[in-house]
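JOB MANIFEST
job_type = single_chain_structure
chain_count = 1
residues = 435
[input]
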Amino acid sequence: MYPTKKSLWLIALGGVGPLLVPLLGVPYLLGWILPFIGVAVMVSDRILGTRLNLKVRRNVANVLSVGTGNRVEVVVKNLGGFTVAIDVVDEAPLEGEVDRENLLMTLQRGEASKSVYYFTPHRRGRYTFLGVKVQAKSRLGFWFVQQLHDMRQDVQVYPDIEAINQFELLAQKNSLSELGYLSTRMKGDGHEFERMRDYRSGDEPRKVDWKTTARLGRLIVREMGQDRNQNVFFMIDMGRLMQQTTDGLSHFDYALNTAIILSHIAQKKGDNIGAILFSDKVKKYIPLRKGPTAVDALIMAAYDMEPESVATNYSNAFKHVMANVNKRSLLLLMTHMGKGEEQRLVRTYASYLGRQHLPLCLFFKEPSLERAVEHVPQTAREAFEVAAAADLMLDRMESLSRLRHARVLALDALPGQYSATAINHYLDIKARNLL
């Protein structure tokens, strides 16, 4: 507790009284009335006006998503006898960011108010929310009162499971294009009959079942679904190149988030899901399985995994897949494009696995390289840098071309477009019945 500016002005005003005694001949006792009144008011406000009676509650989920804003509510109820204006600061974990540090509220007697902010963790793992600090002025405004409410709470930060909820919401609104997904693929143009339904505006005439239409007397559409019980197996690199960050997230997290939302989509289409996480050796292996438990298994396996400062050993990863994944699968390798021997290994193993499986290599584009190529040079030095970036870009395109020539699906994408690229190509593979 400490005095406000209002208190300082009152003290200054009270000090004028004693000065009037020698200057104007004011009676001694009368000159000291002002400081006496000021002290009495401040003491009274200190005793009676600083008794804050607040009930504070924090509402935050026990499981949060990395790299996304997680909703946190702070609810304060005024149980005291006077209106109070408060400044609330929640002690969120230092390993993340908050969009609002100070939450301001004005509460009448008996009133409760809720304030919301969003916490964005940058890494997966265990985090701790500490106390909630409340600061308010006393009833007459002469004192600042501070309270610390001990509300320690541990939370777990998982990969971006919130993206699944966002995907489902947009899918219901038929607005997947907002995330870069080709939502038209979601309706299914496959080869398996799914159901009959009434014709809706926008349906293709070729889908009308004329025999059923004639029998029922109204337009009936034959809806085809995607082939089910296929396999999607993720190969997620955890080597040193995946430690690179873009917009606060490591590229490993981008790959992991992509795998989680794609596995959610795949299991809803009836596909089996499996994965390995590897760096210099295989770190985690999740066998192929079906249903929502497959998504949960991937989330739990990767909960505390981080990319390591070691070179990626592709041989170990591919050999592990050869030994353990016997059913034909879409093998989605998520990694950075290496150089020389690493490229040759990926091309050799992926081409070999293509005899039984459908390999898809999805590489991360280098944002700095993309920016350098698009830069308009102003000096000779900048022209040299742009030319060097163009050479690297050409090498990259040639590497992708060699993979495709070896009958391996090969793509690259910027981190922010990584999920949309993977999902759109998965849906395209399903629609074209390539599995």
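[summary]
Residues 191-225 form one domain.
The two ends are 70 Å apart (CA to CA).
exit_status = 0
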